[in-house]
Amino acid sequence: MRIILDTNVLVSGIFFGGPPFQILNAWRNRTLQLVLSPEILEEYQRVAVILGEKYTNVDLHPILDLLTINSDIVAAPP
Fold it and tell me: Between 7-15 and 38-54, two packed helices, what is the crossing angle to 10 degrees?
């Protein structure tokens, strides 16, 4: 199954349990494939910077790197 991951779901999955975590766990276990556009990746990065400034012990860049490497990157239609 291929899915697009909303930024709020990504952040919730990283910091909390429940369905968002289960989605990330399924991606980690290769049960599903994430599909991202460059624009979505930019939004993830923007939110990572904001969270990093607010919570100095938070660094989302390693998971963003994994997402970039292990997801299908597609151009969004205009």
Answer: 40
Backbone angles phi, psi at 72, to 5 degrees: -85, 120
pTM strictly above 0.90: no
According to DSSP H, which parts of the chain are helical?
Answer: 7-15, 18-28, 38-54, 61-69
pLDDT digits (tens), the chain, 78 positions: 999 999 999 999 988 889 999 999 999 999 999 999 999 999 999 998 998 888 888 888 898 999 999 999 999 887
Q: Which residues pair with 34 in a beta bridge?
A: 3
> Token match 């993830």: residue?
44
